[in-house]
């Protein structure tokens, strides 16, 4: 290459590198069906990034394979910062409950930021003869597998939350998997299932009108916005604590500088005052941390839940 053209090429590369991120539309892959907490967070996040940057963030729901379909798609995508993955607890549980994985999240994906954490509410259909967790435990012990619970699918947050409850409370309830959090909610509303563990934003309208009964919240302490609802731990199951979480990841091939650029956008969007206010009303905590902090969090979650899943005997295939 002639010196003149070489210099021009360097200048063009430098100009492209210095472009603010994003410089074009971004694809946000959500590996679950619409309706659950991951999808809701994804749509709020996409809207806020679009508002702040002027570039569209397109939510691409790719459910299937216990979130592996969408996750593998991102893992195999170019590491340019324009294909993002929204993931949650199933990512670290799947290697334990599945005998075969199509990708390795530790090798094929890179953490960007943990966006939020959120507790769930234990809710039952009004026909269930339990008005507290203690009464639910008593019913479940008297009639093993009599109480049915709806989840968003095998190895979903809802499945794991109830299996942890079963282990700590020493009870057996019957799992009925549905294709997403929305259908699980509908199942409890219609009396197809007795119990589920769902986000407060999804269930409180029905609790307030008597179509569901809230027994307890899965957080370690009562939440200010729902102070009237006791925790599972204080209701007779010591040590119980569960929070869903949602974070952004990118292909492992993504350069560190690009990961940092995506992180800056993700943190700014998540900490927008109106979004924080919305989350606070839903008893959801905004985290918006660094790539290193999110990586450490993922590692701690994998260690904790591997033991819980093995103790429960949970399988998904």
Report on this structure.
This protein is an alpha/beta fold. It is built from twelve helices and eleven strands. It has a six-stranded mixed sheet, sandwiched between helices. Strands 8-5-9 form a three-stranded antiparallel sheet. A two-stranded parallel ribbon has the order 6-7. Helix 2 links the parallel strand 1 and strand 2. Helix 4 runs parallel beside helix 12 and helix 7 crosses helix 12. The radius of gyration is 21 Å and the shape is globular. The termini are far apart. About 4% of the residues have low confidence.
Q: Give the integer mean of the pLDDT values.
A: 92
- Low-confidence stretches are 5-16
Largest sheet, in brief, is:
6 strands, mixed
Straight-line N-to-C gap: 56 Å
Oligomer: single chain
Instruction: Please write the string of helix (H) and strand (E) elements.
Output: HEHEHEHHEEHEHEHEHEEHHEH
Going by helix content, strand content and strand pairing, the class is alpha/beta
DSSP strand content: 15-25%
Across the major sheet, the strand order is 2-1-3-10-4-11
What is Rg?
21 Å
Helix content estimate? 40-55%
How many individual β-strands? Answer: 11
* Number of contiguous helices: 12
Inertia-based shape: globular
